[in-house]
Each structure stands twice: as structure tokens, then as C-alpha cells.
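Ticket #4471: structure export looks truncated?
Reporter: QA, pipeline team
Priority: medium

Steps to reproduce: submit the single chain below to the structure queue and open the exported record.
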Amino acid sequence: MLTFWIDHEDDRSRASDGVSRYGAYVRDRAVAFAEYWGEDGEGPDQVRFAVKAWEVATPPILTGYVQTHARVLGSRLERNSWEGALQGVVELAVPWPAQLAREERAWRGGGGFWRDWERTPFGGFHEPDEEQASRAPYLLTTSHLTFPIPLDGLPPAPAGPYDDVATIAAQTVDVLVGKLNAVVDPIIAQLEK
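Actual output as written to the record:
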């Protein structure tokens, strides 16, 4: 079971250039990608480049390129302010903790009052809509994962704007998917037992 995967078929079928929708989005945001070259001419910054490549590959900028397991509510990469390293942040929909899952009338309002995550017909998790929230209270629990991502295996950031930024960004996202899966897959597998 994979937590993250790239839908190459969807990417090609929805591409305005007939090759890659993600590549077109990267080229359209060339100015935004320029910030990965670092400050004051420091040269290419692999962490900033990875952050930007993932940001463009995932919602809200692009939907359909990086697919996720139903429990993933959101994901992002960021530069760790402590040492400048790359870190991942993933939010998951999780069941109630054991202390709450037990039938305790004191907090559940006489039993069965609070509701948990509801699954969509396609297996996803969704927050209650206005109508549902008007009829019952919901206690939606999440887990917020924050973890370091080593840079080994990532392609070097392009040396300048004339390099093939779209291809290198796609390669970067492909490697990042594997790195995120290495951390999050075991957690998802445990949650799905």
C-alpha cells in the first residue's frame, strides 16, 4: 500500500502541451522557482527547490498529479528553521484514541452522541457539511507528522533558469514520493488494520 504516488497517465492526458501538465505548471511558475537559487547569488539551493517542486505538484496548486491515500488530509515540505534541512509535514485522519473510543457516557452525552470521521463512497475522509454539523457534534482526530527528509538521492537543483527546470522538478517529486512513503506507509498500514 502506497501513501503517495504519481499519476503519470492523468498528467499526460490533462497536459496543455501534450507532454506533462506538471511540467507546464512548473514552466508557468518560472519566476517563483527562481527563489531556489538562494539569496545574494549563493547558488542553487536543493532544499528550496524541493519545497517548491512539491508545492507545485500538490493541492491547492495542482490536483491529480501526486495522488494520496484517503487518510492524507494534507502534505507539505518546508525548510527547517533550526538547521535549514528539508522536512516533511503530513496530516492524517485517524480514529479516536483508545481513551475516547471506549463507551464512556460522561463525555459521549449518554452514548453515541459524538460522531467520528465519515468516509466518502470512494473511501476518503471528509469533514461534516453544514447540514450534518447542524444535527450532531463531530470529534475529528488527526495526527500531525513532522519528520526530516534526507537529501540523498535527490537530483541537484538546476544551476540556473536555462536548465530543464520542469524535468528536474518532476525527478525531484518522484524521489520525494519514495522518501515520504518510507516514513508514512508503515503508519497508514497500522491505521488500516
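Status: closed, not a bug. The export was complete when the record was re-opened. Leaving a note from the reviewer for reference: The chain is about 35% helix and 20% strand.
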